């Protein structure tokens, strides 16, 4: 399990890093947001821990940047401040959990384990209302009945579900599902979304995939 820690105070960073390494996690440490972004772009992290008060770009802004890049690793925010506003802003920026410094290391480790577990659950199963995705078998079910999807329809559905609440452009869908080398002028995304919708409608889930005119497609946050 590889963890990125973005924290400018070396004392705090060393304390957290040492504690995590004793639990056999691999830890990369960045001292500011810029450093953090280059590590996030170069590596795949199972968990990202962000201090909010950083020199330059804050942890909250960094979290938004990470989510903008469609990086879905769980994010835990660390801060010395403990106002409700900070917590709400932190969570709204795309963080999954929040800890106020100073904290008990045992509680911190328990939260780290919970976030890593949640990520694994996400990898094996995705549930959205009456829709269930078995991500190991690459199969979709509505009320227990399988919906037969072609591989690209399935991949689009999972990509939209994992980013629900966000509008994804055709280009983002193309790059994520077909890869970067695909001709951007193709209407292949629309064709697959159309057939995905037809299959979902038939299975009894209507209006799952919404069109956002001029932008792209999305699945709402709530089923
Ligand atoms: Ca700091």
Topology:
Blueprint lengths: L1 E5 L3 H13 L3 E5 L2 H10 L4 E5 L7 H10 L6 E5 L4 H9 L4 E4 L4 H20 E4 L2 E4 L4 E4 L2 E3 L3 H12 L5 E2 H8 L10 H16 L5 E4 L3 E4 L4
Parallel strand pairs: 1-2, 1-3, 3-4, 4-5
Antiparallel strand pairs: 6-7, 7-8, 8-9, 10-12, 11-12
Bound molecules: calcium ion.
Calcium ion binds next to loops.
Share of β-strand residues? 15-25%
Cα end-to-end separation: 31 Å
Number of beta-strand segments? 12
Strands of the largest sheet, in order across it? 2-1-3-4-5
- CATH architecture tag of the largest domain: 3-Layer(aba) Sandwich
- Distinct ligand kinds: calcium ion
Query: Could you estimate the helical fraction of the residues in percent?
Result: 40-55%
Features:
4-stranded antiparallel β-sheet; Rossmann fold; alpha/beta; 12 strands; Arc Repressor Mutant, subunit A; elongated; 5-stranded parallel β-sheet; binds calcium ion; 223 residues
Could you walk me through the main structural features you see in this protein, from its secondary elements to its overall organization?
- With 223 residues, the chain is of the alpha/beta class.
- The protein folds into 2 domains: 2-117, Response regulator (Rossmann fold), CATH 3.40.50; 125-218, Arc Repressor Mutant, subunit A, CATH 1.10.10.
- Helices cover 44% and strands 22% of the residues.
- The protein is built from 8 helices and 12 strands.
- The strands form 3 sheets. It has a 5-stranded parallel beta sheet with strand order 2-1-3-4-5, with helices on both faces.
- Helix 2 packs parallel to helix 3 and helix 6 (151-162) crosses helix 8 (188-203).
- The protein is elongated and about 55 Å long.
- Residues 8-9, 51, 53-54 line the site of calcium ion (CA).
- Calcium ion binds at residues 8-9, 51, 53-54.
């Amino acid at each position: 399990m590889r963890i990125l820690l973005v924290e400018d105070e070396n004392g705090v960073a060393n304390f957290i890093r040492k504690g995590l390494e004793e639990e056999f996690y691999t830890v990369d440490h960045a001292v500011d947001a810029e450093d953090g972004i280059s590590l996030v772009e170069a590596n795949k992290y199972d968990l990202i821990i962000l201090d909010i008060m950083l020199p330059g770009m804050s942890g909250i802004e960094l979290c938004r940047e990470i989510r903008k890049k469609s990086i879905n690793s769980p994010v835990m925010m660390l801060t010395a401040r403990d106002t409700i506003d900070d917590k709400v802003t932190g969570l709204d920026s795309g963080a999954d959990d929040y800890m106020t410094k100073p904290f008990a290391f045992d509680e911190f480790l328990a939260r780290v384990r919970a976030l890593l577990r949640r990520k694994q659950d996400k990898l094996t199963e995705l549930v959205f209302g009456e829709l269930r995705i078995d991500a190991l078998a690459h199969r979709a079910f509505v009320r227990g009945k399988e919906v037969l999807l072609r591989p690209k329809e399935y991949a689009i559905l999972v990509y939209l579900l994992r980013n629900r609440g966000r509008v994804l452009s055709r280009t983002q869908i193309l790059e994520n599902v077909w890869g970067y080398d695909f001709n951007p002028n193709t209407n292949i995304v629309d064709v697959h979304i159309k057939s995905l919708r037809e299959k979902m409608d038939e299975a009894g889930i209507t209006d799952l995939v919404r069109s956002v005119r001029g932008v792209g497609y999305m699945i709402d946050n709530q089923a």
